[in-house]
Amino acid sequence: MSNSIANLLSNQGIGAALPMLERRMLVMHALNKTRVELITQADYELSEQEFHIVQTLFERRNQGEPVAYILGQREFFGLDLRVTKDVLIPRPDTELLVELSLKFAPPNSELLDVGTGSGAIAIAVAHQRPDLSVWAADISAAALEVARTNADTHRCKITFIESDWYNNLPTHQWHTIVSNPPYIVANDSHLFQGDLRFEPISALTDHGDGLSAYRALIAGAVIRLHAGGWLLFEHGFDQAEPVRALLHAAQFQQVQSWRDLAGIERVSGGQFSA
Question: Is 15 labeled as ligand-binding?
Answer without folding.
Answer: no
